[in-house]
# Entry
Amino acid sequence: MNRVSIALLIMPLIVPPSFAQNSSSTTQQTPAAVAHGAFPVKTVKALDSSKLKTGDAVEVETIGSFKLADGTVVPKGSRLTGHVSDAKARSRGDAQSDLTVDFEKLNIVKGKQLPLKGKIQALFPPADEVDPGVPGAATAHGAGGSPVQSAAPPPPDYRPMGDVTQGSNTSGNGKIDPAVDPRSTGVHGLHDLSLDDGTISSQGKQVKVGSGVRMIVKADIFP
# Structure
């Protein structure tokens, strides 16, 4: 497979309205998110629910560059860190194995660290493997051959961020690669895995996500 450098898209990062502050109140409010959206990353080492436990650290890295709503450029290779909130290997009486990761910080290469709240929205095989679940970049199949949702039509106000790297994120027919499309959801081309609200599940003895597996992470980013 020919490798190309990609200029990533990101769902519109929306700056929420400011909230009025009551000067007479002594209650400290949780800061509102400065932006929210979704962006592509990849695992830097394998994840196995039979070897992980709640609280274990997880780190992934961005697979291209993108820009936040305030103009901050997040270069390729920036690290997204989080922790395991649930890890279960199937034992007698269990219906399935589960793995849930909550992301908490975006460490920008040669830049600042941003707190965030993120979860996995989509899964794809590593870039150097053929993705049999996305023939023609149209649809995909998850565990048991059940269809999973592919990229949905863009909302009326959807617009890609400006390119900040060389290259293209489109295929020869002009379609966006689903593995870097922030609208993609579900599991694509990975055997015996399913995804529901950030939790990866398997009917096997454990959930295994190999090194280099690509993900779309949905996140709220805080100041």
About this structure: The radius of gyration is 18 Å. The longest strand covers residues 113-124. The chain has one domain: 35-153+174-221.
